[in-house]
Amino acid sequence: MINLIFALSKIFTCIILPPGIFIILLLISFFACKKFRSLFLFSAIVLYLLCITPTKDLLISHLENVKIDNGSADAVVVLGGGVYPNGYFKSHPEAFERIVYGLILAGRHNVPFVFSGGGVKYNESKLVKVDIKHLCKCLGCYFSIYFDNKSLNTYQNGYYTSVLFEKYGLVKNIYLVTTAYHMMRATLIFKHFGFEVHPRPVGFFYEGRYIFWDFLPHMDNFYESYKAIHEIFGILSLKILHGF
To answer: Which residue of 87, 172, 206, 209 has the fewest C-beta atoms within 10 A of its own C-beta?
Structure first.
C-alpha cells in the first residue's frame, strides 16, 4: 500500500507540476486545435525528451568524458558558479562543491588557491570569501588564497586569471576545478590563455542506468539538458568566433 501511494504521488507530481503540465497542455492543444497541430505535437515531443533522464545523459555524456591525468600542478583554480546572498553559505550548491574540492586539493598539494568569479548581479568573489573563510577554519588551510572579482563568463575567467597569475608571479600550471559538464569548454579557454591544465571535475550528472521513473518528465533533467546544450553551443562559438 505504501509503495502504491508513493508511485501514485510521484506520477501525479510529474503530471501536475512543470514541465509535465506543459507537455499535457501542448498535447491538448494538438487535439483541440485545427491550426499549428504539427507544431504543438513537435513541441510536446521535444519538451518531453529534454525532460527525461536518457536524453539528458545522451546530451551530457560526451561533455563529462574528461580525461583525468596524474600530473602535478603549481596552483588550484576554481571557477565560480553563482551565489545566494541570503544563505548561511553564499555559494550556489554547484559552486560550493567546486570550492570544497579546490580547497582540499590546495591543502593536499600545498599550492595556492585561486577563485575566479565576478558576477553581474552580485559581487560573487566578495560573498564567496565568507564561505571560504568558514571552510578554511574547519579544514585548517594555510596556503595562499587569491580572488579574481572581474570575470563575468568563462572566457573572462581565463583572461583575468591569467592577468592575476602574471601580477603575482604564479606558475600557469594548474588544477582546474569546475563542474564536469563545463570542464571541456573551460579547459579550451584556459589553454588558450597559456595555462597547462590538469582537469579536476566535480558534480557529474550522467547516470547511465534507468528505471521507470527516469522516463517521466522531471525539471532536474530539463535543467541539466539545458546546461548541456548551452555548453555545446558555447564550444561551437569558441571554434567559430575565436578559432579554437
So the answer is: 209
